[in-house]
Q: What sequence folds into this?
């Protein structure tokens, strides 16, 4: 019934839109298109990778851009989908319902999920750094492009960019009345509606409002659904019920923008975004279980239980059902406010201010391996193995000032930024942590009272400058520096009454000032060929997890590249080669490896590494109707040194420092795309036919926690996971005349060949599991613009 109401509501929006006069220049899809004559060329791509507007071919940075049309064709509204289309960028959702992504660029893996830790790839929305890694899979409306900057970006984008930076850019109001309505349906009961209302300019004011509703069922059945969990010991939680399907989601999002432009020299843009989502974790299936190893870990009780009721072995191919009893629906809420002011102080001097506030809440659970709910014979109280539940709350405030100056001699960017965040993260307040639940019988499925939570405040103050000196019309020399002061402090609370452990509060603090810098040279061979070379540095902030201190992770990178447009702009070819050194690498480990057995996880510095590789991207228009795209990236990541603690840890787990595997780092990514778009068909009222196909590949990655290839034979199946080719397709009839507007109808499919392979391996020495590629989805889109 609810679905029918939503469908009726969306169709009502279409009918209302059809009565509105005037075509709409919809900002969300605003992107240069081919002309109808034979002079068609590849569209110019505009980016802000250097804090100012430039053609991508003029930017001496290895940057991939996903534009509005490509985002729409691939149905991408969040970070999770970006990995399928952004060359050289791997994005994988970590197991669990929090939506925390793991991003890998140039072999540098970013997570930042522990309290007080940060990411190696920064996320920015309309110029605002996003501190919370959870909730980053929330939907973003009105995206016009996403820029993926590869390699350290420590000068202009600051700390936490040793791998690179991702920049999401949303549309500004255009001041022309229009309506954009999308309705999508698909298998797994998929439904999505996006409504965008662009308001006409009134005086100096213009604006728009957008709304999205999306929902779908999961692709794997939960064979232990309907189990009630009582979290009443955590205020506001009450009871939750394990989900029927895994990978399900239901979300809503709102985006509002208002622009005030009283003169050509000044404009002020306010943007508000709000979203909420209910999700269930992806299915976790058991791959193998080893009773002998379990016995060595003194888990004979588990062997006994599983001998009476053997685990459901799902293997490395996505199953139809798993036992994920602990997987109850998680939820996420976020909202943000951004106020951007631009002042043209002179013809060649622009001052920009970006003020922002954002808050995020996320709760999720995880049945990590898939053993599900277990019972001792004759005992009605269930117990669980390798499960977790987490709550994360984050609030952040930031203010950045930028000054851009441009002359024949120099292009200068100066800036300063203040950032503050408050974070609460851990088990729901009032409950013990998920790791403590291991093997503990739960009468009535009541989660025990206790505390396992961190309260953190972090502040950062930075100033930066970058100058591009134009030595000749062809030769530029670039230099930049940034100085950052980081400060963090907080308290970790741990109390486990069920084991007689009293409340303990551990205070921690961290502060440090670091500089990052850049030097480079650009040489323009012709108007269409740019070469560049640069040296840059970056770092991930240090800190403390419950009193376990860790130092900043540092990066030094050398890069050279060429950007070219050939054959009258019908071929675009960009190449980059790089070599980087990383020091004090940060790694999350079980607390006992950091001499803190009271912690589920801690963060340590474990060694140094180097990486070398290349990136190549091309776009080709062999004729006026076809566009071909291709990209490949390769990175060879090797460890060069380990700390004494990590060396001994490797040996203790049967490995060798010389052959220690590189966890979670794909060496190769490939993206291929084909788009055919016809000229207007007079017989179809000027409509165009578009056929799009793309495929992407991320090479296999080594499962974390495995120290040696000499693991049990049955466990070798998840030594490496991933390595899947994923294909997507869309066929659309565009620009069908509909009164004063246009209609687009499309059929689409994601994971077209229904790859059922592994995504994220889980290795616990005595049991191994994995998550899987999402199942094939397909459906229909209907889009109306007026």
A:
């Amino acid at each position: 019934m609810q679905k029918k109401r939503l469908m009726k509501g969306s169709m009502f929006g279409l009918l209302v839109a059809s009565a509105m006069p005037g075509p709409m220049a919809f900002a969300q899809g605003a992107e240069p298109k081919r002309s109808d004559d034979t002079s068609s060329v590849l569209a110019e791509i505009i980016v802000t990778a250097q804090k100012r507007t430039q053609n991508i071919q003029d930017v001496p940075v290895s940057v991939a851009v996903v534009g509005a049309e490509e985002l729409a064709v691939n149905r991408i509204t969040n970070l999770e989908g970006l990995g399928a289309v952004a060359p050289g960028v791997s994005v994988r959702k970590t197991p669990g319902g929090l939506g925390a992504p793991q991003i890998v660029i140039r072999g540098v893996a970013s997570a930042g999920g522990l309290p007080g830790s940060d990411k190696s790839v920064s996320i920015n929305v309309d110029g605002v750094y996003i501190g919370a890694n959870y909730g980053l899979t929330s939907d973003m409306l009105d995206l016009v492009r996403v820029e993926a900057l590869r390699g350290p970006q420590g000068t202009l984008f600051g700390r936490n960019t040793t791998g690179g930076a991702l920049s999401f850019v949303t549309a500004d109001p255009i001041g022309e009345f229009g309506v954009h309505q999308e309705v999508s349906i698909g298998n797994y009961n998929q439904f999505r509606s996006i409504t965008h209302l662009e308001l006409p300019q009134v005086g100096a004011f213009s604006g728009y409002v957008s709304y999205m509703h999306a929902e779908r069922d999961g692709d794997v059945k939960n064979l232990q659904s309907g189990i009630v969990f009582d979290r009443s010991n955590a205020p506001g939680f009450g009871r939750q019920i394990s989900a029927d399907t895994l990978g399900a989601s239901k979300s809503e999002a709102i985006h509002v923008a208002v622009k005030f432009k009283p003169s050509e020299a000044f404009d002020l843009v306010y943007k508000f975004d709000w979203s909420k989502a209910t999700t269930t974790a992806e299915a976790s299936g058991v791959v193998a279980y080893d009773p002998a190893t379990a016995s060595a870990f003194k888990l004979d009780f588990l062997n006994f239980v599983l001998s009476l009721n053997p685990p459901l072995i799902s293997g490395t191919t996505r199953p139809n059902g798993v036992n994920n009893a602990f997987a109850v629906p998680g939820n996420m809420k976020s909202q943000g406010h951004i106020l951007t002011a631009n002042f043209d102080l002179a013809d060649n001097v622009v001052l920009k201010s970006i003020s922002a506030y954002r808050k995020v809440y996320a709760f999720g659970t995880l049945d990590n391996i898939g053993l599900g709910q277990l019972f001792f014979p004759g005992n009605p109280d269930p117990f669980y193995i390798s499960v977790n539940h987490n709550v994360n709350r984050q609030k952040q405030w930031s203010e950045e000032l930028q000054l851009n100056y441009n002359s024949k001699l120099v292009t200068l960017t100066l800036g300063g930024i203040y950032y503050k965040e408050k974070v609460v993260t851990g088990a729901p307040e009032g409950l013990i942590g998920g790791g403590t639940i291991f093997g503990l019988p739960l009468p009535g499925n009541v989660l025990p009272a206790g505390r396992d939570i961190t309260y953190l405040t972090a502040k950062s103050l930075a100033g930066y400058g970058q100058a591009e000196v134009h030595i000749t019309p062809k030769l530029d020399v670039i230099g930049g520096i940034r100085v950052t002061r980081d400060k963090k402090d907080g308290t970790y609370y741990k109390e486990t009454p069920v084991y007689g452990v009293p409340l303990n509060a551990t205070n921690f603090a961290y502060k440090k000032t670091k500089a990052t810098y850049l030097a480079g040279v650009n040489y323009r061979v012709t108007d269409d060929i740019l070469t560049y070379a640069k040296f840059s540095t970056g770092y991930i902030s240090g800190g403390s997890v419950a009193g376990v201190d860790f130092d900043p992770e540092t990066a030094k990178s050398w890069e050279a590249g060429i950007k070219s447009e050939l054959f009258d702009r019908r071929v675009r070819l960009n190449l980059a080669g790089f070599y980087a050194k990383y020091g004090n690498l940060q790694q999350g480990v079980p607390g006992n490896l950091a001499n803190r057995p009271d912690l589920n996880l801690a963060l340590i510095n474990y060694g140094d590494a180097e990486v070398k590789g290349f990136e190549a991207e091309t776009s080709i228009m062999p004729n006026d109707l076809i566009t071909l795209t291709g990209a490949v990236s390769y990175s060879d990541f090797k460890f060069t040194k380990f700390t004494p603690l990590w060396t001994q840890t490797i040996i203790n787990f049967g490995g060798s420092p010389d052959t220690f595997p590189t966890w979670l780092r794909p060496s190769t990514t490939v993206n291929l795309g084909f788009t055919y778009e016809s000229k207007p068909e007079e017989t179809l009222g000027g409509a165009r036919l578009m056929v799009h196909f793309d495929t992407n590949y991320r090479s296999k990655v080594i499962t974390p926690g495995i120290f040696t290839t000499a693991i049990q034979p049955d466990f070798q199946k998840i030594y490496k996971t991933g390595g899947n080719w994923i294909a997507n397709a869309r066929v659309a009839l565009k620009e069908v005349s509909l009164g004063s507007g246009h209609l687009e109808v499309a059929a689409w499919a994601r994971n077209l060949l229904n790859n059922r392979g592994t995504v994220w391996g889980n290795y616990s020495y005595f049991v191994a599991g994995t998550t899987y590629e999402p199942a094939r989805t397909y459906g229909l889109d209907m889009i109306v613009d007026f």
